[in-house]
Amino acid sequence: MVNLEVVRSRLARAAADSQDVLPFAEQAMAQAEESVKLNEAVGSLLLLISGAVDSSGQLYCADTAGEPSGLRFEVDRSTADRVLPGLRTLGQALGFCAETHGGAVILTFPQDSSTEIKEHE
């Protein structure tokens, strides 16, 4: 991503004939930044799953048994707080909702494509 920023900034300072390439460099930079955010968000999902596994290998995850359908992951509160921002990013991209309730993280999968993000204390 640093290389894309170098190209973009050098094109911005270069002669007028490089102006036809500058929009492509700026778009590539924006896409790279979005890719990094999504990559970090996937890391949050993996951290959520690993945080819901106890020392015996038991995964603490349950169906929310309602509409919309969802999954409830039992994790400690610090893990829930740490993963929520990344899950919000991922949820916005993929169409699910993320919320916390105490030490639980709840992912809901609405029937429509809109997402709603909640945080309960």
Describe it.
This protein has 121 residues and is of the alpha+beta class. α1 (2-13) packs antiparallel against α2 (22-51) and α2 crosses α3 (77-94). The longest helix has 30 residues, at 22-51. 50% of the residues lie in helices and 17% in strands. It has one domain. It has a four-stranded antiparallel beta sheet. It has helices at 2-13, 22-51, 77-94, and strands at residues 61-63, 69-74, 97-101, 104-109. The radius of gyration is 20 Å and the shape is elongated.
Short description:
With about 120 residues, the chain is α+β, with helices and mostly antiparallel strands. The protein has helices spanning about 1-15, 20-50, 75-95, and strands at about 60-65, 70-75, 95-100, 105-110. Helix content is about 50%, strand content about 15%.
